[in-house]
Design goal:
Rossmann fold; GMP Synthetase, Chain A, domain 3; 2 domains; seven-stranded mixed sheet; 10 helices; globular
Length: about 325
């Protein structure tokens, strides 16, 4: 059982077994052309990304080394012993952004065969910085219910300019409903939320996306995050993507706050330590349709993160709702 729900609300336990885990590992190795997986791990093992990094090594006879993130951040960068299949690393965007500030860390990252980037949307400036350094990034889409990644961009595709979440791995299939909700089918789909059991190899997510002509998946938001303001539907992910662009807000969460006049108003929260350029923020906001422009920008002294380094959106929404109106 693997816990999930830390970024969106109520904690649930996702049931997997040897068949779902093995299917996910086989699809992963086939997609990336790896016979043995050797991973440096900085994500917690109770999180699906950390757990699956370890399982890929265990099931392929590779080596797994768990690292102390605080030490890595402070410059303690372990050597990567030569391996026929090289080494892989999984990071969330904020971790990558912090490492790119250091020249030794940048050189260390360049030694990896693949750097998986997940746990939340990455802003364009971060991706372009990584591409300029020729970092072998792999953007992907997955969740605890699918035993981590279900689609992935290969590093060579990223370095050629692709910025999608890539194609479905060999063990999986992606379909979209009429409203763009992502449905996942495959042998790595979970067995149910404890204590329930399910046998279906398909799962309707709450994520929204689109497929391009290459079959690459592009994530556009979450169906349960949609804000309705003045009768207009606003996708928070779209607003966040604009506000992150070109040096705006590296970390931002857009939420809907109840309002007597509009039903909901759009509010953007960000870490108080960010200190954004207000002129740049106004320029970016002007690119949005009027209904999508945040009515308030709220700096939060406490920026809540999960143990995996992902922003806790439910807690951000609670903190925003607790603020006095207009503050």
């Amino acid at each position: 059982m693997i816990p999930t729900g830390g970024s969106g609300g109520r904690l649930k336990f996702v049931r997997h077994d040897q068949h779902t885990i093995a299917a996910a590992v086989r699809g992963f190795t086939e997609h990336f052309g790896l016979s043995r997986v050797n991973a440096m791990g900085v994500l917690p093992l109770h999180h699906v990304s950390g757990f699956m990094a370890w399982m890929r090594c265990a099931l392929t006879g590779g080596e797994y080394r768990h690292l102390d993130w605080k030490g890595i951040e402070q410059g303690t960068l372990p050597e990567l012993p030569p391996k026929p299949d090289g080494w892989v690393l999984s990071l969330v965007p904020t971790q990558l952004e912090r490492l790119l500030r250091s020249a030794p860390a940048r050189q260390w990252l360049q030694q990896f065969r693949i750097i998986f980037l997940g746990g939340g949307p990455a802003w364009l400036e971060l991706l372009e910085h990584a591409a300029a350094l020729r970092l072998p990034l792999s953007l992907g889409y997955g969740m605890t219910e699918t035993a981590a990644m279900i689609t992935a961009l290969r590093p060579e595709e990223f370095l050629a300019g692709a910025r999608s979440s890539g194609r479905a791995l060999p063990h999986a299939q992606i379909k979209l409903t009429k409203d763009g909700t992502i449905m996942v089918m495959g042998r790595s789909v979970f067995r149910g939320y404890y204590p329930e059991t399910r046998v279906e190899e398909d799962f309707l997510t709450t994520d929204l996306g689109r497929l391009d002509y290459k079959g690459h998946l592009h994530i556009t938001g979450r169906s349960d995050d949609v804000i309705i303001t003045g009768g207009e539907k606003v996708n928070p992910a779209e607003v966040e993507a604009v506000l992150r662009n070109q040096g705006g807000l590296a970390e931002v969460v857009v939420v809907g706050v109840p309002d007597a006049e509009w039903g909901q108003i759009v509010v953007a929260a960000y870490p108080a330590s960010s200190r954004p350029n207000q002129a740049k923020l106004a320029e970016l906001t002007a690119q949005l349709a009027p209904a999508k422009r945040p009515k308030h920008f709220l700096p939060l002294e406490s920026w809540p993160l999960t143990s995996a380094g992902k922003v806790n959106r439910a807690e951000v929404a609670r903190l925003v709702a607790a603020r006095p109106a207009g503050s």
